[in-house]
Amino acid sequence: MFGAGRRPRFGVSSPQRSYRLFRSAPGSELALDKQRHIRNFAIIAHVDHGKSTLADRMLEVTGLVGDREMKDQYLDSMELERERGITIKANTVRLTYQAKDGEHYQLNLIDTPGHVDFAYEVSRSLAACEGVLLVVDAAQGVEAQTLANVYLALENDLEMIPVLNKVDLPGAEPELVREQIEDHVGVDCSHLVLASAKTGLGVEECLEAVVKQIPPPSGVLEAPLQVLIIDSWYDSYLGVVCLVRVVHGVLAKRQKIMMMSTRNQWEVSSLAVKAPSPVEVAELRAGEVGLLITGIKDIAETRVGDTVTSALHPCEDVLDGFKDPQQMVYAGLFPIDPSDYDALRDALSKLALNDAAFSWQPETSEALGFGFRCGFLGLLHMEIVQERLEREYQLDLITTAPNVVYQARLKDGSEEVIRRPSDVPDPLKLQDLSEPRVMARIHVPNDHVGSVIKLCEEKRGRQSGMEYLSSTKVVVEYDLPFAEIVFDFYDKLKSCTRGYASLDYEFTGYEVAPLVKLDVLVRGNPVDALSLICHRDRAQTTGQKLTTKLKEFIPRQMYEVPIQAAIGKKVVARTNIKAFRKNVTAKCYGGDISRKRKLLEKQKKGKARMKLVGNVEIPQEAFFAVLRIDE
Fold first, then answer.
1. What is the sign, positive or negative, of the torsion defined by CA atoms of 314, 320, 322, 324?
2. Concatenated DSSP letters of 20-45
3. For residues 549 and 577, is the Cβ–Cβ distance under 8 A?
């Protein structure tokens, strides 16, 4: 498999990276064969609370990565992750740790994202674990995603070890944050670990806590093989590579396996573990996490959450798998060059294998031609997917303005799902439209509560609660329309609180609202990619702002271009882009005025003919004008 002259490559996200074989310390293999010496755990926390830095220190303490190879956020292998300074994909690594009792332990560590848009990555990672390290910033305290991740861990019935990070900062308040964790998160802090991932303080204590408090996996070696697919990605050399957790039995090379969802059989061509580069192994036993390579080229054959079993002795039950992610934001992706349509389709199918949280289906736009309608968990998720498509697959794309999913009830009693404004039924058939609403929890300093409440009220929110975490920190709960959060809510929240607020939200359901479809017409022709659904009371204001904003992006022509916003046949706002004017009378020096009038009349007729056949090209920036109408 990994013969001489050929280096294995795993994943398209880092094609330039080569991998070396890694061997465990001599004599440790015998000790690690015992299942009771295996610990599977994840690191969960709010954004920027130090998950990836703590993982770096663990790699150093266990001797897996030397000083020469070490770099910040070592497990963030994507270029995009390093540029933005955030974790996008959960990453795994196997550590060999000698505890203070002298025993060697196999620690399977998963570093998870912290942003709300990647919560699905966290939920899938936790399915492979028996415990978590809950990292909390000793200066900032409990934040919105801290609570959200705790709820995910509780749903999976995992052992939780609280870790107070950044205790070396001048503004750290360990005792106050300890009280917040106990009183408002409900986690026992009797075994709290004080740490500083930057200096290495408390990292050994974290590893000892993992060994002592997190239980070993409970899989049965003699039972029929049951393997859960946690993640997967496409490699141009190896085909589909799956990250798996062996729940029961033993998975070995050259073994015949069967995918439970398709009932198709394959042969295991290679098994590996990440330590931190892929290292080939002969087998994966119950409780272990590793990479499964079968040479599958058909992406439809593998599905995240599927159960893999032995073809000769299959298991009876299918593992629970994962809940299907609920996409909340939809946008159109169109190739700038129509000949790239097939390349975009192949890229989406491969990226969907690596990111199970987004969906895609073909669509056609009158303005943009053939493309795809894609569903995302949030705006950041949408930006990341677009950038990955452009970088990893060298595509030039146009992305339409995003919108949320609505529900329409027709007068005949039937219901329809509205994923784009053009799907809104005829007003004569429409009974009402329902919009998605979310419960938003905003953690904010006491000084900025007033500005947060004012912002939420402007966004048609309904206050449902307020709780003081301490004398200086408040949690404000608001029931908000999700459409108001999608566009500019987070930016305005950060602005009005000087960057101190944190936001988490969860979908609560649909509610009937007075919504209308606002069409945008350029030269009288509707541009479906610029249409949007908005509240009736704000339609005229929104239309005026949108037409004014579009005027900045659509280039001037040799004729006047009107931009209109309309509800049905009624125009509610209009802006004109003035025409270029060539001075055709410049060479007329004196003489009869009729000569000038004749030239001007000729120019006027020429512009009228041009207007009949002219085509206004709408640049990419115009499709994002919807997001910036309040600027």
1. positive
2. ----PPTTHHHHHTSGGGEEEEEEEE
3. no
Tokens linked to 90: 């959960």
CB atoms within 10 A of CB 244: 22
Nearest to 49 by CA among 113, 98, 103, 2: 113
CA distance 312 to 601: 87
Cα distances (angstroms) measured from residue 284 to each of 144, 244, 250, 251, 599: 37, 10, 6, 5, 85
Name, in order, each residue with C-beta under 8 angstroms of 391's C-beta and a sequence gap of 6 or more.
79, 80
Compute the half-sphere exposure of residue 90: CA atoms within 13 Å on the CB side of its CA. Answer: 31
CATH 3.40.50.300 for domain 34-213, yes or no, is yes
Q: Of 532, 253, 553, which Cα lies nearest the Cα of 402? A: 532
Predicted TM-score (pTM) of this structure: 0.73
**Helix (H), strand (E) counts: the chain:** 15, 32
Domains 329-401 and 516-628 are alike in CATH topology: yes
- Amino acid letter for position 170: P
DSSP code string of 151-178: HHHHHTT-EEEEEEE-TTSTT--HHHHH
Tell me which range, 80-94, 206-220, 307-321, is most confidently predicted by mean pLDDT: 206-220
Residue 13 makes CB contacts below 8 A (sequence gap 6+) with 77, 78, 79, 89, 233, 354, 388, 392
* pLDDT tens for each residue of 273-305: 988 788 899 999 988 889 998 888 777 777 788
Please report the sign of the dihedral spanned by the C-alpha atoms of residue 228, residue 234, residue 238, residue 239: positive
Contacts of 539 (CB under 8 A, 6+ apart): 516, 518, 565, 567, 572
In a 3-state reduction of DSSP, which class is residue 492? helix
CATH for 226-310 is 2.40.30.10
CATH number for the domain running over 329-401 = 3.30.70.870
Q: How confident is the model at residue 625 (pLDDT cuts 50, 70, 90)?
A: low
Nearest to 291 by CA among 19, 30, 55, 76: 19
Fold type of domain 407-513: Alpha-Beta Plaits (3.30.70)
Element (H, E) at 386: helix 379-392
610's CB contacts (< 8 A; 6+ apart) are 558, 559
Residue 345's H or E segment, with its range, is helix 341-354
Summarised one tens digit per residue, pLDDT across range 347-389 is: 998 888 777 778 888 988 776 788 998 888 877 888 888 888 9
Cβ(535)–Cβ(487) below 8 Å: no
> Residues 164, 177: contact at Cβ < 8 Å?
yes
Q: What average pLDDT does this structure show over 530-557? A: 85
User: H helices within 459-538, ranges in order?
Assistant: 482-484, 490-496
Residue written as token pair 């802090």: 189
Query: Where along the chain do its domains lie?
Result: 34-213, 226-310, 329-401, 407-513, 516-628
Q: Is the pLDDT of residue 549 over 70?
A: yes
Q: Helix (H, G, I), strand (E, B), or coil: what is residue 548? A: helix
Per the CATH hierarchy, to which homologous superfamily does domain 516-628 belong? Elongation factor 4, C-terminal domain (3.30.70.2570)
Are the C-beta atoms of residues 288 and 262 closer than 8 Å to each other?
no
Nearest to 213 by CA among 330, 157, 132: 132
Q: What are phi and psi of 54, to 5 degrees?
A: -65, -40
What number is the average pLDDT over the span 236-247? Answer: 87
